[in-house]
Design goal:
- The protein is α+β, with helices and mostly antiparallel strands and 63 residues long.
- It is 16% helix and 29% strand.
- Strands 1-4 form a two-stranded antiparallel ribbon.
- A hairpin with a 2-residue loop joins strand 2 and strand 3.
- It binds iron/sulfur cluster (2 copies).
């Protein structure tokens, strides 16, 4: 299993959305101005979202 956490205090949401743009599995999506996680079982643990996040607000780990 994969555990994905978004630190919404650090995340810039719709003003950034870098992780949404790069996620190849469409696991991270925008809901209004907030990043939400959908179908997390599709996450390939590629960690690209973590690489692009300017605020270290998204964390993906094997659970
Ligand atoms: S690790 Fe990869 S597949 Fe998983 S949420 Fe991040 S960008 Fe998407
Ligand atoms: S890349 Fe980071 S700061 Fe930007 S929307 Fe994603 S989690 Fe938030």
């Amino acid at each position: 299993m994969v555990k994905i956490t978004i630190d919404h205090d650090a995340c810039e949401g719709a003003d950034c959305a870098e992780c949404v743009d790069v996620c190849p599995m469409e696991v991270l999506i925008l809901d209004g101005d907030k990043i939400v996680i959908q179908n997390k079982e599709d996450c390939s643990l590629c960690e690209v979202c973590m690489d692009v996040c300017p605020n270290e607000a998204v964390k993906v780990e094997e659970d």
